[in-house]
Amino acid sequence: MQLCLTxxxxxxTYFYKTYSWSSQGDNQGVSDxxxxxxxxxxxxxxxxxxxxxxxxxQTEYRDIEKDExxxxxxxxxxxxxxxxxxxxxxxxxxxxxxxxxxxVVKTFK
Length: 109
Hints:
Layout: H1 32-41, E1 47-51, E2 57-62, E3 69-75, H2 78-98
Antiparallel strand pairs: 1-2, 2-3
């Protein structure tokens, strides 16, 4: 007895949702509280590095409302922990910058 399989391709439809920028000052649906948190996390003074008992280094950020620290990542060296903090700061700075609206990156003549 021979088993014959016939494979039929699945037809898939993709739907894309696009957004246009409106300059109505609504920060594109981002709440003021979220923007405040991004600005807080974009400042290096709100970060620290602690050494754990296992020798690893942990990056932490200070809570915006309470004087509490929250762990984010663990790294093997102080340098890589600081690089992780710098990467996080860069990430939040880009988010804040995005709220200003689209930037012209190239024009044509």
